[in-house]
Amino acid sequence: MQRDDxxxxxxxxxxxxxxxxxxEVPIGAVIVKDGVIxxxxxxxxxxxxxxxxxxEMIAIRKAAKKLASWRLTGATLYVTLEPCTMCxxxxxxxxxxxxxxxxxxxxxxxxxSLYDLSDDKRLNHSVVLTPGIRCEETSSMLSxxxxxxxxxxxxxxKSSPAFGNN
Length: 166
Prior knowledge:
Layout: H1 5-21, E1 28-33, E2 36-42, H2 45-48, H3 55-67, E3 75-81, H4 85-94, E4 98-103, E5 128-130, H5 135-159
Parallel strand pairs: 3-4, 4-5
Antiparallel strand pairs: 1-2, 1-3
Helix pairs in contact: 3-4
């Protein structure tokens, strides 16, 4: 069986589902080298109360530990949402060859939306980007999560007693 970007993105989506199951924003990542997943990660910011606990950061740290090297050359990061500036910084510093992502992030993306750090000539490493893989699926997962979150907030507001009405 030929394992292509769609296949590996499915593995990242599975990680996003793990995040969603524990109430985290459903973003997942896997790092693949030589046709094998060497690391997985999903958002854990809420659970760990750690602003750096993004799916990509977790996967990058695990991959570096597994390879006993901070240099992840020859590896590809698959992530369900366009990486932010922090995560793209880690991608560049870790020397990942390629980033494949599902949905663009117009509010925080650093791989083409707000910024594009992938090929900034001022940096010492460039990264090949492949955007839009399984975009409909990754986008609907995120929009569904946030729609449910907003509905819960509205429900809580409606069921709260009005203050100052004695």
